[in-house]
Design a protein that fits this description.
Catalytic activity: Endohydrolysis of (1->4)-alpha-D-glucosidic linkages in polysaccharides containing three or more (1->4)-alpha-linked D-glucose units
Number of strands: 21
Protein name: alpha-amylase
Strand order of the largest sheet: 11-10-9-5-2-1-13-12
Oligomer: single chain
Radius of gyration: 23 Å
CATH architecture of the largest domain: Alpha-Beta Barrel
CATH topology of the largest domain: TIM Barrel
Helix content: 25-40%
EC number: 3.2.1.1
Family: Belongs to the glycosyl hydrolase 13 family.
InterPro entries: A-amylase-like, A_amylase_C_dom, GH, GH13_cat_dom, Glyco_hydro_b
Structural class: alpha/beta
């Protein structure tokens, strides 16, 4: 009996060692980490703003801060690429970010060794958390751009995985109006001054694809990876990516750096990827709440998502990342960012928050300044306002999903909208967002929420209770441009929120 009890206690964690599917990832929320910039062993390594050299962050450093990540409410971590990269200084600095792959089958020793990466995976799983690994395999990188056997054999001290020129597409600049050019030309063509060349691989070739599929299967199994973030998905064929992810046997989400929803959605499906990162929705949220666009911009992206995605409930929603300007660098008004965060979490999909957003980091208006060392900010404080807001959003999302699992399968739709304000209904919840700003006041009556007449409702962000009108309308009253997330008292009780 004792042995059986121990086995039952281990079942939730044993399940994590099996292949994680879209259905299992759908309920997760992800904290994005650039390994070199998240946590160093000493928490005091020198790393000036805009540094393009290694600063000392490691996989062991991540392990040491998992309490911090988990206290935010995240149950998955996405780490930057683990692969062996171009070594030494280049015209653009060092490969601290991990995206200048030389050999994906080897690890980047700057971050640790095989034991360290396995320890990170194990530490996450022991907490019931998932590990998502970033892979950058559309190209191999070198400070030389010459496609010859001698040059490829010598590049990166002989560490390039593919040394046959026939494994690469010819060097050319990308013409983004031509899909063949997007798939076959180079993201970076290099130069004679030491600039890194990203030599595009023929992933459509059976030899190249076979090597990469064999590697990804072993990689996922060896390090017990739960999901993959596929870098530069736009620059590889969907058939190859589907087969690669099938070989890994785990959830894959691809990066298609484009805000056209119909185009991005073409990379998701039965013969493509499980999901894509939500660049279009990011544009809708950020342009609406930090720019001059009215809420009709966001409403348009929400409509497009419903129309084009095969499954919008697993798109990765985010406001910024390691390649983009930090959302806090685009506005000084934290209330506008707060509204955008609520929109991100309550619209649907899998929310992703980039390290440092919780600390209100606003320095990063562009790469490399948006890859700040987190240890330089607030000593990993857990008491800040935005930290608490993200923590609460994860709690609300988990509570609503725990009370009704179909909540995770749903996405929001626009119930009502006017220039500065938008009401988004998702399942049993109503999110009301505004771009009035931190000093914004006013009222707005929203009809059609279907909460009932004279019904008791609560805003889950403030836990303030109110009542719908005798015709079921909700009167929104702004005192400081704040967002709202309304549910009925019954739903709040079932979700264990605001009790």
């Amino acid at each position: 009996m004792a042995a059986r009890s121990k086995l039952l206690a281990l079942l939730p964690f044993l399940a994590l060692s099996q292949a994680a599917t879209s259905e299992e990832w759908r309920s997760r929320s992800i904290y994005q980490i650039v390994t070199d910039r998240f946590a160093s062993p000493s928490d005091s390594a020198s790393c000036p703003l805009g540094s393009t050299t290694y600063c000392g962050g490691t996989w062991q450093g991540i392990i040491s801060k998992l309490d911090y990540v988990q206290s935010l409410g995240f149950d998955a971590v996405w780490i930057s690429p683990t692969a062996l990269n171009v070594e030494g200084s280049t015209e653009y600095g060092e490969a601290y970010h991990g995206y200048w792959t030389s050999d994906p089958t080897q690890l980047n020793s700057h971050f640790g060794n095989e034991t360290d990466l396995k320890a990170l995976s194990s530490a996450l799983h022991s907490r019931g958390m998932y590990l998502m690994a970033d892979i950058a395999i559309n190209a191999l990188s070198s400070a030389s751009y010459t496609l010859s056997t001698d040059s490829l054999s010598a590049a990166n001290d002989g560490t390039l995985l593919f040394k046959d020129p026939a494994n690469y597409h010819d060097r050319c600049d990308i013409d983004y109006s031509d899909e063949n050019s997007i798939r076959q030309c180079w993201l970076a063509t290099g130069d004679d001054n030491g600039a890194v060349a990203m030599m595009d691989l023929k992933t459509e070739d059976d030899t190249v694809a076979g090597v990469l599929k064999d590697w990804i299967k072993e990689y996922a199994e060896n390090y017990d990876i739960d999901g993959l973030r596929v870098d530069a998905s736009r620059h590889m064929g969907t058939d190859f990516q589907h087969d690669l992810c099938a070989a890994a046997g785990i959830f894959c989400i691809g990066e298609i750096f484009e805000d056209n929803t119909s185009y991005v959605a073409g990379f998701q499906g039965d013969n493509a990827l499980d999901a894509t990162l939500g660049f279009p929705m990011k544009t809708g949220l950020v342009d609406t709440f930090t720019g001059s666009d009215t809420t009709s911009t966001l409403a348009g992206y929400i409509s497009d998502a419903a129309q084009y995605y095969a499954d919008p409930s697993v798109i990765g929603t985010f406001l910024d990342n390691h390649d983009l300007a930090r959302v806090n660098s685009l506005t000084d008004d934290k209330t506008l960012v707060w509204n955008a965060l609520v929109g991100q979490f309550l619209y649907g999909g899998i929310p992703i928050v980039y390290q440092g957003t919780e600390q209100d980091i606003a320095d990063g208006d562009a790469d490399p300044k948006n890859r700040e060392a987190l240890w330089n900010y607030n000593d990993y404080s857990t008491s800040g306002e935005t930290f608490g807001r993200i923590q609460n959003l994860n709690k609300i999302r988990s509570g609503l999903g725990g009370a009704d699992s179909s909540f995770y399968e749903s996405v929001g739709w626009v119930l009502s909208q006017q220039d500065s304000d938008i009401a988004i209904k998702r399942g049993n919840a109503l999110a009301v967002l505004t771009k009035r700003g931190g000093s914004g006041t006013g009222t707005w009556t929203v009809s059609g929420a279907d909460f009932g007449n004279s019904a008791s409702i609560v805003d889950l962000l403030s836990c303030d209770w109110s009542t719908t009108s005798d015709s079921g309308d909700i009167t929104i009253t702004w005192t400081a441009g704040q967002p709202f997330v309304y549910v009925t008292s019954d739903v709040a009780s079932q979700a264990g929120l605001c009790q």
